[in-house]
Amino acid sequence: MNELKIEDKLRLYASAFENALECMMITDDTRRVIAVNPAFERITGFSPAEVTGKRPSFLDSKTHNMSFYRTIWRAVRVNGSWQGEIQSRRKTGEIYSEWLSITALTRGGALHYLAVFTDITHRKEYESTLYALANYDPLTGLANRNLFNERIELAIKRAAHSRQKLALLILDMDRFKSVRMTLGQATADQLLLAAVTRIKKCLGPNETLARLGGDEFAIIAENVHDATDAVRIARDVLSTMSRVFLSKEYERYLTCSIGISVYPDDCVDANFLQKNADTATYRAKLRGRNNFQMYGPDMHVATFEQLLLENNLRSAISNGEFCLFYQPIVDAETGKLARMESLIRWNHPELGLIPPDVFIRSAEESGLIYKIGEWVIREACQQFQTWKANGIDLPVVSVNVSAVQLRKMNLFSIVASAIRDNRLKPGELELEITESSAMQNSDASFGFLKDLGSLGVGLSIDDFGVGYSSLAYLKRLPIHRLKIDRSFVRDLPEDSDSKAIAAAIIAMAHSLELGVIAEGVESLPQLNYLRSINCDEVQGFYFAQPMPPNEVDFARYQ
Ligand code: C2E
Ligand code: MG
Ligand code: MG
Q1: Domain spanning 137-297: which superfamily?
Q2: Hey, which of 399, 400, 538, 545 would you mutate to test ligand 1's pocket, going by the most ligand atoms within 8 Å of its Cβ?
Q3: What is the pTM of this model?
Q4: How far apart, in whole angstroms, are the C-alpha atoms of residue 380 and residue 415?
């Protein structure tokens, strides 16, 4: 290549300076501006005339302190150059980010400085969008699992350093899958947002909420004194969630189960802290949901999923791990014992009593419900016989029967033989069938229910009001009683909708000559209202919780 002549070289350099896309600024040794290129004016808004002879402090964004600038100039002095990100101010006052390099030019005895910079505002915005996408949940704006993992690690480091405790609470919404199925994705998201808003209000400045996935959330509580601080948060969350969620699209209750693990009491590592809190959440689910559990070392024996394995249930039958609790149903007027409902419990050797909600569905899916159901019927009849032999005057024992059992024809012979073997009159046994299962099975169950009816066994429709019963169909079934679902009793006597529904169910049932039981009665005002609308029988914690047969105080209901 030919050597360029001096003038040509200078022209070429000047053209590079004029046409460069990067801003260029040359200053003298006192840092006063000698020259700026057109890109400089384009980006900063300052013309060459405005800046020549001035120090570049007109670009100062006031976002950096003096020591920041001192560090830069020290680097230029020592190394001859500095590069980095810096915030500057345009003529309009707008602050922007630039990538700046400063070089000291020492040729020919004179000292100059060359500053070259590019506007990186867009790149920064893009980066921060990427960061948000990677670290925040778009629906709730909460930290996602990614950022949560970083935060819990940091929080543990801080706690270790300051010798403080730290609690991790993992919250899982109860039955959210079915909420999503009934409400649809968009409305379920709205409900979740409403829940997050409530949960946030329970948290203080040392507590952060994250969304770990679908309906799973985590709270990191720093600087806790002991586990009672974490318990307070869990209680507050459960309590704020217990109010109904109301919007144009829905009117729903949404509860959650909470597991708590404490650093350094339970473990000293973020991974284990999470695993332990998870295990405790599963335990809360096992304990009937809508509650919290503290992690304990005994919890590792079995997790929720493992427990639900068929094998576990199967061995539960052969090991005799099921038992029946009993809950009285009393006459609303006289307070006398009208019947006793049997409610199954799984007495797990390590986990203790597990409520039916947790395992009935999996028993139904695996077909084990046939064996379990048969055991329940025989056990309840035998208990009734034992009470009778002890001189206890109990009119009726009732047994819950699952929809799946109704599909199997030998239920009739099981019921008949249980009655015969324990010398019961058929009317002393009653079966409770949920509204939906009675409707689902239509023809097959209809024939079967009719056979049972003709045998003289009582039949009641459980959880009435939550399904979609056809009244005509109801009339064809040989049933004796309706049990009004707990959800219509809960808000009595304040809620006018509940009042209207309860009164309508009772009036309708009576006109079809059916008796009515209200379940879930927890207070005297509820009882008084139910009496005033002629409800026949009542059941609920106001009278007694379900309990083992030897704990029932029959004298109370004489
Ligand atoms: P269910 O037959 O409607 O039973 C009523 C449930 O409400 C029971 O829950 C009972 O403990 C609870 N309860 C009673 N009074 C009150 C109250 O005042 N307030 C509140 N909040 N709750 C009250 P549990 O024992 O957990 O049983 C749940 C469901 O599991 C039962 O609902 C029934 O459908 C089913 N189940 C129970 N035992 C059996 C069984 O042996 N076989 C089958 N297939 N299902 C069963
Ligand atoms: Mg029942
Ligand atoms: Mg019920």
Answers
A1: Reverse transcriptase/Diguanylate cyclase domain (3.30.70.270)
A2: 400
A3: 0.57
A4: 11
